[in-house]
Design a protein that fits this description.
Elements: H1 3-21, E1 29-34, H2 41-50, E2 59-62, H3 67-80, E3 86-90, E4 98-102, H4 106-116, E5 121-124, E6 129-136, E7 139-146
Antiparallel strand pairs: 1-4, 2-7, 3-4, 3-5, 5-6, 6-7
Length: 158
């Protein structure tokens, strides 16, 4: 097998793995994977600020609630956010870090919760907003990242 054929095969396997890792969402993918290089660097920096332990969540939910309440809370937060129906979902795969998805029904959110848990990230297709969820003791945390949010250097909302 030539080097280019091997590279092509590896790339195809990585793309399949990315879609599988995204929770079997290949049927919901609109345009396949989105390479990291095309993701605006400024947006990546804003997402990194949210990941700091000093960042203040926009909403919290006690971890003592039942799973139905968590699903409802996260679904409401995503649907009411400016992220919209077209979004990118992180895959955790280096060559294909983002899957391009369309939220056409709540079935997709339930599938995501079933396969990926509740610590999800949704980035708007226009790169102007994102929703991030974290499972932290003793609560679930929800973050909304938009251009209108003002952040200090420690990652706290102003």
């Amino acid at each position: 097998m030539t080097s280019s054929a091997r590279d092509r095969r590896l790339r195809l396997l990585q793309e399949k793995k990315a879609k599988d890792a995204a929770g079997g969402l290949a049927g919901s993918a609109r345009a396949g994977s989105f390479p990291r290089q095309k993701f605006p660097i400024g947006r990546m920096k804003k997402l990194a600020h949210v990941r700091r332990t000093t960042a203040e969540p926009d909403e919290v939910l006690s971890e003592s609630v039942d799973e139905a309440e968590i699903r409802s809370w996260e679904a409401r937060f995503v649907v009411n956010s400016p992220v919209g129906e077209l979004f990118y979902l992180p895959t955790g795969i280096e060559l294909f870090p983002w899957l391009d998805c369309e939220l056409d029904t709540f079935d997709l959110l339930n599938l995501l919760f079933d396969r990926r848990g509740f610590g999800l990230t949704f980035v708007a297709n226009a790169f102007d907003s994102a929703v991030l969820f974290y499972e932290e003791e003793p609560e679930y945390q929800a973050y909304l990242v938009t251009e209108s949010h003002r952040w200090d250097e420690a990652g706290k909302l102003l």
